[in-house]
Write a structure and sequence with these properties.
By secondary structure, this protein is an alpha+beta fold. The chain has three helices and eight strands, in the order βαβββαββαββ. The chain has helices at about 10, 50-55, 80-90; strands at about 1-5, 20-25, 30-35, 45, 60-65, 70-80, 105, 115-120. It is globular.
Length: about 120
């Protein structure tokens, strides 16, 4: 249950997350949506700025939307990715002086995704 949400990426195209959600208890969750028409196993690109944001907030979730068609799509959610981001950033810190990657390419199998949810698209 949520009390409010905001589409941050609509106002700031380079935001390191797409949505900020305020839970009923007042806690904040940041959500980044990664979508593809392809299958779930396609690699996910996560920017360095997304990793930094992911590592410093209490909760940052990644929504993987895939196999998108005109009438449905599939969704899986990976919750609470701060520890994952901290590990990736620490490895990046061991690169030679002056080398800073812009992003990483991640196999979905390396993230704690939930079960698949099928979302039906209806016209309003």
């Amino acid at each position: 249950l949520i009390s409010d949400f905001h589409w941050d990426a609509d106002e700031n195209a380079i935001s390191p997350y797409d949505y900020s959600v305020t839970e009923i208890d007042g806690s904040m969750t940041l959500i980044d949506v990664k979508s593809t028409r392809g299958n779930f196993n396609g690699r996910i690109h996560i920017s360095y700025n997304e990793l930094l944001q992911m590592s410093i907030v209490a909760r940052y979730d990644l929504y993987r939307v895939y196999e998108i068609t005109d009438d449905h799509m599939k969704l899986r959610i990976a919750q609470g990715l701060s520890k994952f981001a901290e590990k990736v950033i620490s490895v990046m810190g061991n690169l030679p002086f002056g080398v800073q990657p812009d992003s990483v390419s991640v196999s979905p199998d390396s993230l704690p995704f939930s079960r698949e949810i099928i979302v039906k698209v209806t016209e309003t």
